[in-house]
Design goal:
Bound molecules: adenosine-5-diphosphoribose
Strand content: 15-25%
Strand order of the largest sheet: 3-2-1-7-8-9
CATH superfamily of the largest domain: TPP-binding domain
Distance between the termini: 26 Å
Mean pLDDT: 94
Order of helices and strands: HEHHHHHEHEEEEHEHEEH
Number of strands: 9
Number of domains: 2
CATH architecture of the largest domain: 3-Layer(aba) Sandwich
Largest sheet: 6 strands, parallel
Radius of gyration: 19 Å
Length: 248
Amino acid sequence: MTVPDALRATVSRIRRVVVLTGAGISAESGVPTFRGEQGLWKQFRPEELANVDAFLSNPSLVWEWYAYRRKLLSDAQPNAGHRALVQMERLVEDFVLVTQNVDGLHQVAGSTKVLEIHGNIRRNHCQHCRRPAQVDLLQSEGPPKCDYCGGLVRPSVVWFGEPLPMEAFGEGDRAARRCDLFIAVGTSGVVYPAASLPLTAKNAGAYFLEINPESTDLSRYADGALRASASDGLTEVVTAIASGRNSP
Ligand code: APR
């Protein structure tokens, strides 16, 4: 597993990098990915629970699923993949990290420029009045009521069918249009509009690198791939960028 030659040849000229992360980067921290068998909770697929209709028709069930996921996260620590992105941010002049993850592990690792386009599971707000709510994250028995309006409190994540935070996505989209290198790491690339970002970057002339042990829906568009874990693949790329900075 090495950085593709075409990328290595241009690495000293790379000034603008966008990285899109998905659940795979947190897999090595013990956080289950969404798709595949490990994504099932009880008999449910994430798509069945992560939507507003499911929450309104069975708030306790959806809340219990989030309490379970928050419990898993309470012990999770960033891994070498998260840390490699902190180094990349320091090395690259114009660096933007767009994450679909809601676990906050990039920030725990020390990344400062993170666009969370699917929200953050550690925050909550009222489904009715949208005000932020402070709650016991591990409370598993049903969602609390909003202190202001009595509405149901929900996790501040983007559910299927809901719009993305416009500002964060817009910033990621603009960064994709100007970058030299776009890296998609640990994502199956099936959820849009997140999955459109590498295509936007490629159409604007960027080199598109995929890091994933498996091929994905994005693989056919990639200029190069590292079939590796996020930690190994990102460490390789950071090493290549750092050596490009040191060469004459
Ligand atoms: N390193 C890198 N990639 C990995 C690793 C690893 N150690 N382990 C697994 N993967 C890859 C898998 O091969 C898969 O392609 O991570 C990907 C995980 O895919 P998904 O579970 O579909 O996660 P993601 O792409 O983040 O899902 C997108 O879907 O349910 C929604 O909102 C949720 O943000 C999520 C979105």
